[in-house]
Amino acid sequence: MPTLKQLARAGAAIVLSALVLGAPPLEAEQWPQRTVRFILPLGPGSGVDIGARLFGDPLAARWGQPVVVENRPGGDGIIAITAFIGAHDDHTLLFSPTSSFTAHPFLHDKLPYDARELAPIARVSNTIVVVAVPSSLNVGSLGELLAQVKAQPGRLNFNTATGVTDFVFDGYFKSAGLAMTRVPYRDTVQALNDLGEGRIQMWVGALAIARPHVQAGRVKLVAVTNSERASVASDVPTVTEAGYKALTFDGLVGLFGPRDMADDVRNRIAADVRAVADAPEIVTRLGATGQVVRPGTAAEFAAAIAEQGARVAAFADALGVKPAK
User: Fold this and answer.
1) What residues contact residue 241 under an 8 Å CB cut-off, 6+ apart?
2) Range(s) of the domain holding residue 243
3) How far is Cα of residue 288 from the mean position of the Cα atoms in its chain?
4) How do residues 40-86 score in pLDDT, each as one tens digit?
5) pLDDT of 198
6) Closest of 267, 278, 244, 254 to residue 58, by C-alpha
7) How far apart are CA 43 and CA 52, in angstroms?
8) How many domains does the chain have?
9) Greatest extent of the chain over all pairs of C-alpha atoms, in Å
10) In the prediction, which pLDDT does 29 show?
11) Is residue 323 part of a domain?
12) How far, in Å, CA of 242 to CA of 225, rounded?
């Protein structure tokens, strides 16, 4: 089995290749020349949608052109990705969590798009991902929860909200010799309703989705999967602090352009994203959606995606799941 370092190196090479392919169509000072579209794989009201609109308005002011947010939910993110790629337009950008596609090679037998068409421009934020349990469950920490899982193999139920966390948790359970029963849901809201009622005993997903159930007292948080604690849930430890570093997962959200976008245009957009991210109101309002503002360069974003993809690949390999051809 390849090591995580080898997988990361290979993943980085694939992702970074998208940053250097093609001839530049426009110089930065000439861009944008018309309306800029942000295509999203999630619907209105989602944390990513709110983030796109929060950044869209001040970016429009800086660019002197309107920014339009276009929601294309469904199809495990593939609908939005193929719409973005099909536009063949450097004024059409993908505003997306990377979890929408890093697990795709292991979830689909054949992909209708080439990942090299997704050229990272800039990370915008990190989604806060939480491990939640029913308030009625007699556990106060992630360690206590997993102790119950160990004591009752296969008897406790769980659900995860993204394809990436599927592999992270399934892979960890296998490596640790633990067994939980996965319960699939089409609707994450129903999963959380069942969590609050105690019909499932663990749920992993975005804090923004879980927060109303936490505030209502039906659900409690035992950990965040992020590398760092979240200021909006500062009392909740990270999985590393809880002693389970292998479960670390940062939800990455950012902007992508076509692979032939000019480097200076990409750099200009990334610089503008960083400038907008400095505004205190952006930090506060995005934090209220369960996200942490975390802008960066195209190379930094690409490296983070490659690392996430490598971790998914390593867990998938351990589970015997082969990538799409």
Assistant:
1) 223, 229
2) 129-247
3) 17
4) 998 888 888 989 999 999 999 999 999 999 999 988 899 999 999 99
5) 96
6) 278
7) 11
8) 2
9) 63
10) 67
11) no
12) 10
